[in-house]
Design brief:
Pfam families: Response_reg. The protein is α/β, with parallel strands linked by helices and about 120 residues long. It is about 35% helix and about 20% strand. Strands 2-1-3-4-5 form a 5-stranded parallel beta sheet, with helices on both faces. The chain is globular.
Length: about 120
């Protein structure tokens, strides 16, 4: 363990996942990347995220269902929904991160998490 807080990223687009990993690393987080909800859920026993960034449009189990399961399993985790969809259509979460994501957008959310 690095001693850095862990962020769970559930994102099926490899480039987007890599971008989020870079932004999170810059903000002092380790990132656990899951390319689908099933992989994220399978890792629940090994991870303890303080932040989760979940894409709504995922193959298989939906991002909305994944977000629900993350909230159930990690009630203290700061939940962020990310999508190309209209933010008004996002399920309830601690923050919205509409795409395209910028480093400044993510930094503003991280500031809320670490306050």
């Amino acid at each position: 363990m690095s001693g850095r807080p862990l962020a769970l990223v559930v994102e099926d687009t490899v480039d987007q996942a890599a971008l989020l990993r870079r932004y999170l690393d810059r903000e002092g987080f380790d990132a656990f990347i899951a390319l689908d909800a099933e992989s994220a859920i399978a890792a629940f026993d090994e991870i303890d995220p303080v932040l989760a960034v979940i894409d709504l449009l995922l193959p298989g189990i939906s991002g909305q269902e994944c977000a629900r399961r993350v909230q159930e399993r990690f009630p203290e985790c700061f939940l962020v929904i990310s999508s190309v969809l209209d933010a008004a259509d996002y399920p309830p979460a601690d923050a919205a991160l509409p795409k395209p994501i910028t480093g400044a957008d993510l930094r503003a959310i991280v500031d809320r998490v670490t306050r």
